[in-house]
Fold each of these.
Amino acid sequence: MQYLKNAPTWLRFLIVFMLVLGIFFRLFNLEHKVYWHDEVYTSMRAAGFTRQEIDKEIFQNQIIPVSELQKYQRLKPGSTAVDTIKSLEIEDPQHPPLYFLMARLWMQVFGPSLTASRTLPALLSLLALPLMYGLGIELFTSRTAALLATALVALSPFDILFAQTARQYSLLTVAVIGSSFLLLRALRLSTWQNWGLYILANTLGLYTHPFFGLTLIAQGTYALLLMTVKTSKNTTVSRNYIELSTLIAIASSLILYIPWLLVLKNNYQRVSDTTNWTRAIVDFLYLVKLWILSFTALFLDLDFGFNSIFTYLLRLLVLLLIASAIYTVCRQTNRPTWLFILTTIFVPFLLLVVPDLLLGGKRSAVSRYLISCYPGVQLAVAYLLATKILQRRRFWQGITLLLITGSIASSTVSAFSDTWWSKDLSYSNGEIARRINTINSPVLISDIGDDFTNTGDLISLSYLLHQDVQLLLVKTPKLEELNMISSVAKKSQTFFFRPSQKLVEAIKQEQLQMLPIFAPGRLWQLKN
């Protein structure tokens, strides 16, 4: 592969601008978006609570102020890091403890505020930038391509979105990029220090999220395929040694992960129950739409509606760019380079797609589950743009500016929005809170819900509702509770938030009338 020439001055300034703007977007308006269901659980686990003990305390057929729920987002009195680990082990074993322990330590130092909670992943996401530069250098031996890849990560709407989310996904991105960088470095310069750092990165990745395993499988596949590559004159290690060293390093990381593997084994049923939603049967078109949205969100994330043709027309152009980039890498780089790009992108993707197609489900439709694929896409696009720009192709200079404009526009719109597609269950919570807050001293009634997700979203709403809002959290829809609801309704305007089917039927049997107020958020009002 030929070395790319030095970047023109305008491109250097553009890359610096992209880096600065990407850092700005990560730290801007951190508190603005809905603190959604999963983020609530991050704070809950970090604080040392379990959902079971919270449910037992709050669903007691009593009227409580909305601020009462906020105590479950602060450190549990007398708790330790062991309580955080136990909370995950008992109720969320599919989530390893590394990020949650970091969040607990962060909470102890900076407090439990929404801004503080989101500052941690935002700062962690910045580590991806130097690591991506290092990965680009190892892969392409080109500062221009490496810098452009770093700038694309910095300004990526997807990466910015999850950098502002109090979950482990920005740390997972760092682990994926860091592990890939250290692998290529160890293959180029085989020392025990480099292999040790690679093992450490893999171990941290596994303790961040189980889907880091997709990256390890991709890297193992890459090492096996390298066996068919004739050893380069610049490489001193044999093909057998490359394979053996990589596989031993991956095995060593898995050995260090055994303690949490045992947790997963001992709590397999809980893992199955809490991830059952990923096995929901969806049609093929739904999967295709989410694949398009997921991969193109790396560069463009303007939403005109899930079923709007305009959403996909713009995205298809980005998808065409990605396909062109992969083709260019395969045509213009040496075999180890394009093998790395292909295995990085397609091995994790196929590991999720194949079960969905054969067994049913939507694992591959969850954008955050595809994080292992994304650095390969960004590297390929960076190589394509760098190559064309340095050849003074004006058309591709224009494409680069359009792509960057789309990323800036996407991140700007997102920065000033109080919700986004990533908020999932809690997408409508902002609008729900606005409607309830227009009423003086209302009462919001809810129960655990049919899918047991109301606890997280009630706490999410507690960040948004006015302090005069009161909650009546029902344990079981029996006569006593129904009489209490009737009594409350005579004194205050009363709303229902995502009531279970049992509660709805009990209300109807008592000849009380519920009026739909906001269908997307399942908000009802009790007619007086």
Amino acid sequence: MRRQPVLVGDGLIVEHRDGTGAGAVAVYDFRGLPVEDALRGSLARLFASRCVPSRWTSHLSSRHFWVHLQAFTAYLAARDTPVADITQLAAGVWSQWKLSRPNTMSGYRQIVTVRGLLLDDPRLSAAAREAISQRVLTPKAKEVSFQGAEFDAIVSTARRMFRTAHLRITENARHLAQWQSGAFARDSEAWLLGEALDCLARTGEAPHDTRVRQRGRVLARYVRVLGGEGPEHTWQRLFLTRMETVALGVLLLAEHGWNLSVINRLKVPQAAPDAGSDGTRIYRVELEKHKRGAGRYFETRNLTDDGAAAPGRLITQALEATVFARRAVHTLSPGTDRLLIWRSGRAPLNGYPQDEASKKSGAGVFGFGITGCTAQRWATQQGFPSSPFRRGRRTVNTLHRRELGQNSQATHDRVYALTDPQVRQAAIPVIAEAAEAVVAKAREAMFAAELRQRADPADRPTATADCHDYDNSPYPGPDGGCGASFLMCLGCANARVHPAHHSRLAHLHHALENLRTVMDAGQWQAGWGDAHARLEHLKGRLGAAVWTSALTQVTDTDRELIALLLNGDLDQ
């Protein structure tokens, strides 16, 4: 099969064959661009050079570039001085084009897309190449995650819509299975309904009249058992509508955080039986982010369905809801492995012309996947202001799952997490709690006195410890010596604590605990918090048994000293 780009006619028509193996061709006619022939030819050659398997394997890529190239040439055509060819493209023209683009992601994409194409041409002047190569700043993200109530409303709406469709299809599927097993008496109403469902499953249509004047009308004998001739009475019994498929896509988004391009092209998951005997199903779901280059960024997820809340349960329901559509499409287009298939109410399929280049979007009356326009239409019909997918993905991955999805960690942090107001707001108490923990740890570590088993006669006794080097205090007083309070002794490396101090310090700790119950919390923390933290650390180092014993050995002298200390009547 020919896979190279083809320049046909006078070199102004490019044919791009996709890399999916289906051989679909997209045709781009550069003769319609509003610029000189020489520039048309140059742009066509640059465009064609990318329509190769190593560059663009998907028509999405070539169409993306084509749209932006049309905008660029329309800008050039509106200038008073035309640009005859790429060799005449001046740096100033490019700079003016950049400034004319809106400061949005759409404008950013126009600039970087056209820039990449132009830089492939070696004939660019040095000045133009330098100007085109300059960095383009990414606009600040204006898209934010949904508020909790907003997203809950969207998901609830989608769940109701898809659940209704799933129940409808599975109930009719059970009736069809009973008909196929011969459970109904021939020509009974149940049998006629089963026969109509069988025809619908095989052909996509209810049994209809083939006479010219009555063509397309459901045969009278089936109208009564079906309940009417409308879509809700006929083909919707076994097939999803386009909007119901969007609802399923919203649920996949809410469950797994996948973006629309991934959901749109989901392949039918492969199911493997679990090693156990409980009927658990494990699905292997292949994810491919096409916008990053087809065939280069794959991810595989294993989703288990072992109960109503299991991550694979929605996959089971999606397979059940699309089973008849997938069978019908397999007959029309063998080899199709798309999961999301819906039926249109019109034939030929409205909005999906069936030329070779567009067959990937549908087959006959069946459509594949979810487009951005369809998602927006669903949102409008349900009373929501915008498509749920972009903001929804941000919501799921930053606020619910709190992990990256088809992105690098750097992209997840830079594009999604750090720019989202709700993520920032939620981070405030977390950061504050962490800071408090750090401060508490630091204060806990401030107990710096040395523990000893006996007193050193050379040390100088104080109210809370013995001082080993009074004249070289880290807290010197104005007249020399130590200027710190007795409560600070436990935070000084010169202090020595031995068993004779234990009862007094245990009593001080107990007294501070009592003060906490009667004082304002802020005042207590400011006045006594540090001393209490050091005593807490000391208590932990000595152990509960020693501390409890010390409390039983408190003397009147200990009580008197601590009372003076707490009342501020004890001088250093």
